[in-house]
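Re: the 132-residue chain
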Amino acid sequence: MSPINPMALHQVSRDDIEVPLVAKACKDEAFKKALISDPKAVIEKQFRVKVPADIRITVLQEDVNHFYLVLPPSLPPFSSELNDEELEAVAGGAAKPPEPKPTTEPVPPPTYERPKCGCLCMGTTSASGPET
């Protein structure tokens, strides 16, 4: 596993961090216990990065009767007012894009697949949630 450049940490996806941690926790009980008890230290050691002090990480382990739904951070309120550039684009009578042609082929639904590691371990990291 190559280290993540601390300067480019904001460019790394959550899956780039979460997937290898979950996979290793499923295979290594000592690693899982360390990840649950001190996730910042484990992430810093594993990826050779410094997690900022204001970032909280909570690791939760689901079981067959209890699962967690992690919501993304709240976004700032949406403004329905157009800025000057957007107003110029619509004021000039910008044409609508052509309507798509109907098709008879069904569109497959989007899928999300969590890593399969063969155990009940579904640990997730979250910036908020119940502390363990």
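Confidence is low (pLDDT under 50) at residues 1-8, 123-132.
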